[in-house]
């Protein structure tokens, strides 16, 4: 999955393409799936017993977890102290939902008796790591572009999010994991499938077609794979939400209130 990023104003624009991998579409996730009926899309957790509350697309029995559901789940687990900021489970918690699976530790979102597949649906540490890598690429791309024009993410006046996936994103949860910048929430705007809408409008208007060509000529493209700043920003973003807590002050304040604990690793024999 590629994320296309544009930073600019009415006079100039800089662009870049970030290779985020398939996690946002459910790829590379143990029980990942596309956003269809039965996909877990909403998640919350009850801190006293760490039991999950989930909802699925179409209200069907759970079948897997889609990209937006993965973001919401990881954010919820982080806010409840079930996972640490490096994406590892806190195995000291009094819950049978955290267990050791074939790919390391995992959390059971739905027991087999409750699912369409007749199997437990889980989220694993490998799944979480894949999501961290995907969100790190996107945030690092944004950081790199805004730095290239002499500003920071906190100074963005508006963030416009396009695409079908974007329409289902929960801004608060995306900020919690470090996917979107920690700025006032009213600066985010969702427009749905912007490319299809743009194609439709330009097919009916010569003036809009001319505008589209003018905008395209305003753009300067950055190749991130050859950019040292991008590499450094990417490594710094491989954390929930980020290694630099000042990048995400609201999230850092929330996490600072959690009880301090360290994930305990057990060896299987």
What structural keywords apply?
269 residues; alpha/beta; 2 domains; 3-stranded mixed beta sheet; 8 helices; 32% helix; globular; RACo C-terminal domain-containing protein; RACo_C
Q: Which helices and strands occur, and which strands form pairs?
A:
Layout: E1 2-8, E2 13-19, E3 39-46, E4 51-56, E5 64-65, H1 67-79, E6 98-101, E7 104-110, E8 121-124, H2 125-148, E9 159-162, H3 164-167, H4 171-177, E10 188-192, H5 194-202, H6 206-218, E11 219-222, H7 228-236, H8 249-256
Parallel strand pairs: 2-11, 3-5, 9-10
Antiparallel strand pairs: 1-2, 3-4, 6-7, 7-8
Helix pairs in contact: 1-4, 2-7
The class by helix and strand makeup works out as alpha/beta
Count of all domains = 2
Strand content: 15-25%
Q: Residue share in helices?
A: 25-40%
Strand order of the largest sheet: 1-2-11
Order of helices and strands: EEEEEHEEEHEHHEHHEHH
> What best-fitting shape do the alpha-carbon axes yield?
globular
Question: For the report, how would you describe the main beta sheet?
Answer: 3 strands, mixed
**What Rg, in angstroms, do the CA atoms define?**
20 Å
The total of beta strands comes to 11
Average pLDDT, to the nearest integer? 93
Number of alpha- plus pi-helical segments: 8
Q: State the end-to-end CA separation.
A: 39 Å
Protein name: RACo C-terminal domain-containing protein
Organism: marine sediment metagenome
Domain RACo C-terminal: 1-251
């Amino acid at each position: 999955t590629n994320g296309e990023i544009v930073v600019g104003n009415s006079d100039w624009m800089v662009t870049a393409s970030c290779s985020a991998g398939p996690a946002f579409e459910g790829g590379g996730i143990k029980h990942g799936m596309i956003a269809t009926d039965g996909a877990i899309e909403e998640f919350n957790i009850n801190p006293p017993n760490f039991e999950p509350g989930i909802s699925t697309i179409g209200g069907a029995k759970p079948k897997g977890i889609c990209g937006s559901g993965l973001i919401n789940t990881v954010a919820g687990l982080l806010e409840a102290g079930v996972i640490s900021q490096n994406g590892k489970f806190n195995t000291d918690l009094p819950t049978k939902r955290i267990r050791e699976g074939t790919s390391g530790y995992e959390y059971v979102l739905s027991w087999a008796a409750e699912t369409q597949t007749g199997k437990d649906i889980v989220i694993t540490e490998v799944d979480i790591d894949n999501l961290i890598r995907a969100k790190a690429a996107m945030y690092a791309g944004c950081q790199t572009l805004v730095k290239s024009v002499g500003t920071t993410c906190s100074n963005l006046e508006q963030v416009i999010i396009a695409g079908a996936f974007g329409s289902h994103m929960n801004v608060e949860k995306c900020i919690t994991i470090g996917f979107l910048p920690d700025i006032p929430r009213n600066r985010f705007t969702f427009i749905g499938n912007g490319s299809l809408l743009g194609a439709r409008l330009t097919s009916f208007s010569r003036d809009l077609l001319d505008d589209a060509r003018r905008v395209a000529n305003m753009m300067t493209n950055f190749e991130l794979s050859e950019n040292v700043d991008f590499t450094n920003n990417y490594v710094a973003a491989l954390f929930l939400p980020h290694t630099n807590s000042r990048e995400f002050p609201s999230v850092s304040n929330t996490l600072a209130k959690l009880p301090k604990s360290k994930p305990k690793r057990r060896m299987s024999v």
